[in-house]
Amino acid sequence: KAGVTQTPRYLIKTRGQQVTLSCSPISGHRSVSWYQQTPGQGLQFLFEYFSETQRNKGNFPGRFSGRQFSNSRSEMNVSTLELGDSALYLCASSLRAGSGTRRGTDTQYFGPGTRLTVL
Amino acid sequence: GENVEQHPSTLSVQEGDSAVIKCTYSDSASNYFPWYKQELGKGPQLIIDIRSNVGEKKDQRIAVTLNKTAKHFSLHITETQPEDSAVYFCAASNEAGNQFYFGTGTSLTVIP
Questions:
Q1: Is B58 helix (H, G, I), strand (E, B) or coil?
Q2: For B67-106, how does the pLDDT look when each residue is reduced to its tens digit (9 = 90+)?
Q3: Could you tell me the CA-to-CA distances from B4 to A67, B91, B110 in Å, in that order?
Q4: Closest CB to B105 among A42, A98, A100
Q5: Which of A34, A71, B54, B76: CA 20 to 30 A from B91?
Q6: Nearest beta carbon to residue A112 from set B34, B42, B46
Q7: Pairing label, strands A19-24, A5-7
Q8: Which residues of chain A does B51 touch, with a Cβ-Cβ cutoff of 8 Å?
Q9: pLDDT tens for each residue of B24-62
């Protein structure tokens, strides 16, 4: 079974531009989560999508947005890029999103990430 | 929300020795604890996980222990090899949502 794929792998943008990153989850997985990884802050949760709906959201400004398509593929968009947005953006897929009535938590499998550099 | 602390931040061991990485968590509702290994230029890869109804889990040279009362869990790697060199992350999650809280990572170096 193919793993999580992310495109592009590397991206260079300038301040003020916007960027769209793509993530294709493992076949059959319906939940996609996005993370930002930086040396100083570690892995920080951006948001999670399940069945085309945003289920959870981290503490990031509104410049960071995402969406999920009916085939579970997800995109995240960052508008008005800032130097501090330079990071490795990771997506992770799992079988389904958690819920208060469901026992256990599904394992998350990460993609290779998109390295974004903002100049 | 959940707070996960991970120690040490760096760890160097001689090949063949054991390595132990420890994490603590704050939310007693957390019930799932995965460990990830991240090599340079790659995304984190799941290496082992444990759920709160189990105290210990082992997979060849890797084991994880969980102490729910003390709210801490540890990764044990025995007979370390140079290819074990990487950054290791612990995480905690609960059934209230699918959000994972990650530790700050441990950079493990295995010296040949």
A1: strand
A2: 999 999 999 999 999 999 999 999 998 765 567 899 999 9
A3: 28, 7, 25
A4: A42
A5: A71
A6: B42
A7: antiparallel
A8: 104
A9: 999 988 988 999 999 988 999 999 999 888 899 999 999
A94 vs B100: CA distance, rounded Å? 12
Distance separating alpha carbons of residues B95 and B72, to the nearest angstrom: 18
Using the structure block, give the residue that is written with the tokens 């968009």.
A77
Cα-Cα end-to-end distance for chain B: 41
CB contact under 8 A, A105 and B89: no
Whether residue B88 contacts residue B41, with contact meaning beta carbons closer than 8 Å, is answered with: no
Q: Residue A69: is it exposed, middle or buried by C-beta count within 10 angstroms (0-12/13-18/19+)?
A: exposed
Q: Which of B95, B96, B100 sits opposite A108 (nearest CB)?
A: B100
